[in-house]
Amino acid sequence: MNTPPGLLAEDFDHLDQILDALRAQHDEIPQWEFCEGFLAALVCCRRRLAVDEWLPVLLDLDDGARFVSDAQREQFLQLWQRREHVVRLALDTPVQALDDDRAYDPQVLDVRGAIASLSEHERREIEGEEIPSFAQVWALGFMYFVESWPEEWEPPRDKDTAALHDHALQAIVALTEDDTDEPVLSALDDDAPPSMSEQRLNAYGEALWAVYDLRELWRNIGPRVQQVIKGDTPGRNDPCRCGSGLKYTKCCGR
């Protein structure tokens, strides 16, 4: 069986270009990091959603944004599906440490680190702008998916499993908050200016393990079972509800 290859740097650039083109029509189109978090939640979701169900929610396609062509939409989905395959494989592969080459490695940006590396003049030009913390946008994308399909994220009935479910979601929610502690390290490299706190790095690791937990939890439990409520069945001598004039047992109840 042939499996789709992972994405290269130029493939992520292509995704960014498509999103930029959509953003020119509708300024609410998210950056790829947000999409990456949304994709991780899609993989972890209890029910496997069809493209036509999640794509309009992610890209606000019902609120003005449109792909410029069917070819552009197909290109976006092909790249998405390749990335989804990599994420799904990573989350289904048992690992003991997050630095394992097989572990899930989200595409997140250290925006504060990149800004800290700019010249003083360049930093002054963007002074006052709201700069997201490390992996904050990724976590917001994940939770946006959860909030869009709350019925698929209701806690399990089992008390211990429900506690694991709640703990995992709270670990991701914690990453949506701003990193206000003193920056002491960099996500770029050891020589780069510090851009995040040690607490933030620990929270990031906990959020990644939480994604593994959620994926495993819903795989074990399976999709929700819809309860079928049957109406009252007519008695054998009651007239059939179809209006034929015959008794139920002589008509639809035969």
Can you put this structure into words, describing what you see?
This protein is an all-alpha fold and 254 residues long. Helices cover 49% and strands 0% of the residues. The protein contains nine helices and no strands. It has helices at 9-23, 32-44, 51-59, 70-91, 111-116, 120-125, 136-148, 159-175, 198-221. The protein is globular. The mean pLDDT is 86.
Q: What's the average pLDDT?
A: 86
Number of strands: 0
Order of helices and strands: HHHHHHHHH
Kindly name the structural category.
mainly alpha
How much of the polypeptide forms β-strand, as a percent range?
under 5%
Poorly predicted regions are: none
Share in helix: 40-55%
Main sheet, how many strands, which sense, barrel?
none
C-alpha Rg (nearest Å):
24 Å
Count the helices. How many?
A: 9
Structural shape: globular
Straight-line distance between termini: 49 Å
